[in-house]
Amino acid sequence: MRLATADFDPLNLPVRCVITRGEREAFAGETNTSRIHRQLPELVSWLGRCNSFPNGIFVLTGTGIVPPDTFTLLENDRIAITFEGLGTLENPVVVVGE
């Protein structure tokens, strides 16, 4: 992980999502943060209307990448979301309490 530099533009980052099933790519999609429907200052203004965050806050917007309705995650699938210039977050699908 690395910190953002002065020229870092959070509203112009390629985003890629890959779901791997076994050794095979089961789904892949990409977008760009420039496609966020509501701009960050607007999201933050709504969030701060009834709440205060003296120690700061993270605002999570999601990726904007959605598999088709016919796609279902299965146990042991791996989801990797990469923001160019920031890094990759990867998690397995784990079934709990069936």
Number of domains: 1
The total count of strands amounts to 4
In CATH, what is the homologous superfamily?
A: Fumarylacetoacetase-like, C-terminal domain
Which stretches of 5+ consecutive residues score pLDDT under 50?
none
Sum this structure up briefly.
With 98 residues, this protein is mainly beta.
Care to describe what's here?
The protein has about 100 residues and is mostly beta strands. It has one domain (about 15-90): Fumarylacetoacetate hydrolase, domain 2, CATH 3.90.850.10. The chain has one helix and four strands. It has one helix at about 40-45; strands at about 15-20, 25-30, 80-85, 85-90. The protein has a four-stranded antiparallel β-sheet, with no helix packed on it. A hairpin with a 3-residue loop joins strand 3 (about 80-85) and strand 4. The relative contact order is 0.26.
Based on the model shown, name its key terms.
single chain, 98 residues, mainly beta, Fumarylacetoacetate hydrolase, domain 2, 4 strands
What's the layout of helices and strands?
Elements (H helix, E strand, L loop, with lengths): L13 E8 L2 E9 L7 H8 L30 E6 L3 E6 L6
Antiparallel strand pairs: 1-2, 1-3, 3-4
